[in-house]
Amino acid sequence: MLIKTKPNILSSEITDRAVFESRREFIKAATVLSAGMMLPSSGHAETGKYANVPVGPYSAKLQVTDRNDVASYTNYYEFSTNKQDSTVLAKALKTKPWSVEVVGEVEKPGVYNLEDILKDNPVQERIYRFRCVEAWSMVVPWIGFPLGDMLKRFKPSSKAKFVEFTTLYNPEVMVGQRSDVLGWPYVEGLRIDEAMHPLTMMVTGMYGDELPNQNGAPLRLIVPWKYGFKSIKAIVKIRFLETMPETAWHRNAPNEYGFYANVNPEVPHPRWSQSRERVLGGSIFTAKRDTEKFNGYGAEVAALYSGMDLSKYF
Amino acid sequence: MLLDKKDWAVVKIIVFLLSLLPFLLLVNDGINDRLGANPIETLHFGFGDWALRFLCITLALSPIKTITRQSWPTRFRRMMGLFTFFYASLHLLVFIVLDLSFSWEAFKDEVPKSPYILMGLLTYLLLFPLAITSTKKMQKRLGRSWVKLHKLVYVAGGTALVHYFWLVKADYTEPLIYALVIGILLAIRIVVYYRRTASL
Q: What ipTM was assigned to the predicted interfaces of this complex?
């Protein structure tokens, strides 16, 4: 009798944590040894769905944050305002099948299957810094493709000055949506030039594998020079607009969260400083890191805001 | 149930160890790398939560005494008050030593920009004189003014709540629960006070 053996499950999920961690220690040591050299993108699942995708442009040569930290510390208010609880609660979300509705100032509106979107847009890996408005940060190897490439296929009209993104609204599964801590559904937006900027990514995976639900599966935005709340999760709708859309956090507290939300150490949040950030994964005795303007992507994006008063358009 | 002096000493030791337990558990989690992705925050919030919980327990003792007409709650007043101060001190220590890494520059930048941190520091300043005058000696020496001074604990309860409300981004559930508890405890005292003055 033939006994079928199961194929490998995610190695990161079955590896004993201590082993996994010691491997990271090795990788850390290797990073130090090969300072300045480009390493094959860090210590994560080589057996995952996206294990062998090419490294894209703008990928930083940085030590990435432990995958466990990235996957267990998420602001996902659709599930919970507790960063650990959302990790568990998000498991209930079904991400297949998934489609994205494209509407507004665009020649090819419609409902697009995620599979088809992924066929048209080959994925790549990019290591980006991620800076939360709460003054913590991490370094994540995202898997995705430039948002602009995808948007161009829908042929935006000349009236399309802004792009609006909407998260799934399903309070039966997204239990956090049953209380009105934020107005639901979550909405975010970008100016069209920000959306078309080659740094801006549509993300479908991380650490060589598919996105965990809590990190925004199956499709999320990543805008590395803006605070994390701009990088909306579980996108079901994209709308092209002539006017600036109202966004979730701005609607909730307009004096605290602006539409632009560019990382900027010179402009404090009304209730806390943005000068420094706690980099996740350090020892408890590691000092905070000085936050960089545009999260260190100033050379690429500062020109988008030339002549603008960034303390007014925060 | 009648307990003699020796029995009360044993009960006090048990209560003391139980009150120390949250501290020991957090330290144990720290040693075993179980504080999660942001260990400093876990320690900081953990100690802050327990400071507030012990403040609630401290404030609850007198109302319990009034309602049950028992004298035992008074025996724990000092200990619970000092545990409030203990966890508040750890909360502040984590902020200064771990979060700010003892950097004066970071302190100068971050504290003035943050109303909730200022409110937290004010709360600590209010608790400080209560902790140092908590001994029997000081209680005797200060006499009536000791009672007046220790009414500051209500003010500290209020500023601690404001500190919590001001740091929250959107979900006020937890500070609202604490506000409800402290509010009820304060209301009981006000009712008791007016009944007493009315019956005079």
A: 0.91
